[in-house]
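Slack export, channel: ligand-projects

TW: morning all. Re-posting the request from yesterday since it got buried. We need the structure predicted with the small molecule present, not the apo form. The ligand is 2-acetamido-2-deoxy-beta-D-glucopyranose; the SMILES is in the block with the sequence. No rush, but it would help planning for next week.
GE: picking it up
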Amino acid sequence: MPTPTRILLLLAAAAATLFFLFWRPSPPPPSDTAPSPGGEAFRQRLVAIGDLHGDINNAKRVLRMAGLTDKTDHWAGGNDIFIYELWYRLRGEASAVGGRVINLLGNHEVMNAIGDWRYVTQADIKHWGGVENRQHELSKEGWLGKDWLANYSISALVPLSPFPSAPTLSFQHGSLRPSFPNLTPYPDAINRLGHSLLTRALTPPLAKPYPPNPYSGLPAGTTREEAELYDGGGPLWWRGLADVEDDRIVCGWAKELQEKIGVRRVIGGHTPDFDKIVHRCNASVIIIDTGISYAYGGVLSALEIIYTLTPVPKDDAHRQDPFVAPGNGTDAPHVLRAGEKYIEREEVNAIYQTGKKRIALEVRQIVL
Ligand SMILES: *[C@@H]1O[C@H](CO)[C@@H](O)[C@H](O)[C@H]1NC(C)=O
Ligand SMILES: *[C@@H]1O[C@H](CO)[C@@H](O)[C@H](O)[C@H]1NC(C)=O
Ligand SMILES: *[C@@H]1O[C@H](CO)[C@@H](O)[C@H](O)[C@H]1NC(C)=O
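GE: finished. pasting the full token output, ligand included:
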């Protein structure tokens, strides 16, 4: 078994969770589709999971389906608290093996934070030990409020390798709007606003939950920019990349985003397609909400990205160095060297219970 190095990135809304894992096995396994004459020198796997809507059982099934967890889970219940505890634990476990879990906030986290509890069930409130306990745990003095402030952001820019040549991917819960006023510097501007709004919302006294109390809106002192972050055109709620039907418009936006923030793909959830992961504009836009929870009854799915760098074989036909035997393709994996040529391969797949489906394949030669 390869030793996995894991980075797990998770974009959550009490209702929605996207979640990624990078994994670099050592030694690299042979690639079934690409010849790797000198062996892959670098390999990472990333998995993203869309909106889970508090469904702990399906969350665990998807994690297992994507090979992210083993069968030793013994979870009870089906409420949000368990999902957050699961992510908390997996984050620790991933970092213990050199990996990483990155969590992102969704609209439902921020709704909970500002006291908009319209989607919170009585059972959930009971699991937390009542309204006051739930509010306390969500506040910046409670474990979950602290966890959100420390470990969750609105947006993530994910490089596919640690090298400067790496293509990058952008993740957020909703759609990223190219005309969003605080798009750049990406993702810092968005994440700063998210953190300041969340801090405001989680600083006691917390808003009285609506219902039964009237909706109190964003916290006192919220700035215009923070309000824009949370409104319908912001990255938590906007659906444009998913629900505007005209491809010319969406691909225009995708191109604009690529130019403004330099990413290869923009990936989000929030707008479900109950049958499949949706990709548009040559997979420069990917929407991974498949309505995974039992409440929605969509398909279980995960997005997988496998990124490899394989040294370009040197032209050794006339080599006559008595001290260096010519390579025969079974040598140890290459060590990465700056200035050398590599074949970069990015494979994007949708994982379903019925198997994998290729979404995109990008292969190019790069100089590291
Ligand atoms: C952030 O996540 C790590 C790993 O789960 C955890 O150890 C740490 O306590 C979290 N921070 C807060 C403030 O909860
Ligand atoms: C889609 O991506 C492939 C692979 O990079 C590229 O060859 C092709 O030109 C792209 N098509 C469009 C319409 O951008
Ligand atoms: C060639 O293959 C053999 C095993 O098949 C291996 O022991 C050897 O190190 C390889 N490399 C070279 C340069 O001979």
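GE: first-pass observations. The chain has one domain: 6-367. The CA atoms of residues 7 and 100 lie 4 Å apart.
TW: perfect, thank you
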